[in-house]
Amino acid sequence: MICFVESSSYGREPKRFRFSEGVRCAPLSVAADVSVIPAPDFAAAPKNGRIAAFQERSLFMRLVGMLDSPFVRRVAISFELMGLSFDHEAVSVIRTFDAFSQINPVVKAPTLIVDDGTTLMESSLILDYGEALVTEERRLLPVAVPERLRCLHLMGLALAACEKTVQIVYELHLRAETERSRPWLDRVTRQLLAAYAGLNEALTSAGEGWALGERFTQADVTVGVAWRFTQDVAAEYVRAASFPAVARLAARAEQTPAFRAWPPV
Ligand SMILES: N[C@@H](CCC(=O)N[C@@H](CS)C(=O)NCC(=O)O)C(=O)O
């Protein structure tokens, strides 16, 4: 299918490309007989690229949504890290609402269409499904309770930061200037700054490690995508210099192969 979609949802100059070019597929396009690989050798798994051969279940998943959405990007990066293969379809909820509604009438990004046709929404629910598909070594959420708690705490702050940034963007770009609410913007900005202050405080102790120490977890993915998103679309509301621990961790996350494989464009 060829149709034109816009590549940006968040106020930057939109770029047009053909729908077929917006679909990123696993290069190892999965042969029908490679549905289950028993006892995969994770140590030998490639660290980058679509890793179809290491997927334990659920081939042909479709991840729908623009990568400039932090929610879509965290799913793409996480699936990459988990070794789950999927096709990415860059369809915008803003600029191509009708096209998106053909895929999911609720028009929420990310949308994941699973191999049996089930539609999933909400990035954290999609990631919950992804975690269930892979073995423990590939999971991004720690199992031990204290680590899990810290991870969820950081993810909650980062997701709040994403949500508040989205609200600022929608207020500024989807409302006519005369309809904008200054008190609402101030409220949301205060919440956004509180989320990053909480993150910065919690991450200060992380030093040069990842959020939970040596292991890269969902906290690192979510903090990384949140920070990049806010800096890309609402930097004037969140001064990077005020949150050095968050900025440092996010900069290092952006250098990892999975983040580089799924840039926010
Ligand atoms: N909590 C949701 C937030 C997703 C979200 O707000 N996505 C935006 C795009 S960044 C969207 O679908 N907006 C369209 C709408 O809400 O109508 C998640 O984690 O997936």
Distance between the termini: 22 Å
Number of domains: 2
Largest sheet: 5 strands, mixed
Q: Which secondary-structure class do the elements indicate?
A: alpha+beta
Task: Give a brief description.
The chain is an alpha+beta fold.
Please explain how this structure is put together.
By secondary structure, the protein is of the alpha+beta class. It folds into two domains: 4-138, 3-Layer(aba) Sandwich (Glutaredoxin), CATH 3.40.30; 145-261, Glutathione S-transferase Yfyf (Class Pi), Chain A, domain 2 (Up-down Bundle), CATH 1.20.1050.10. The chain is 44% helix and 8% strand. The protein has helices spanning 70-82, 97-103, 123-133, 145-173, 182-204, 218-234, 244-254, 257-261, and strands at 4-6, 16-18, 23-24, 61-64, 86-89, 111-113, 119-121. The protein has a five-stranded mixed sheet with strand order 3-5-4-6-7, with helices on one face. Strands 1-2 form a two-stranded antiparallel ribbon. β4, α1 and β5 (86-89) form a beta-alpha-beta unit. α1 (70-82) packs antiparallel against α6 (218-234) and α4 (145-173) packs antiparallel against α5 (182-204). The site of glutathione has 11 residues, from α3.
Name some characteristics of this structure.
265 residues; alpha+beta; Glutaredoxin; Glutathione S-transferase Yfyf (Class Pi), Chain A, domain 2; 2 domains; 5-stranded mixed beta sheet; two-stranded antiparallel ribbon; 8 helices; 8% strand; globular; disordered N terminus; binds glutathione
List the helices and strands and how they pair.
Elements (H helix, E strand, L loop, with lengths): L3 E3 L9 E3 L4 E2 L36 E4 L5 H13 L3 E4 L7 H7 L7 E3 L5 E3 L1 H11 L11 H29 L8 H23 L13 H17 L9 H11 L2 H5 L4
Parallel strand pairs: 4-5
Antiparallel strand pairs: 1-2, 3-5, 4-6, 6-7
The site of glutathione has 11 residues, from helix 3.
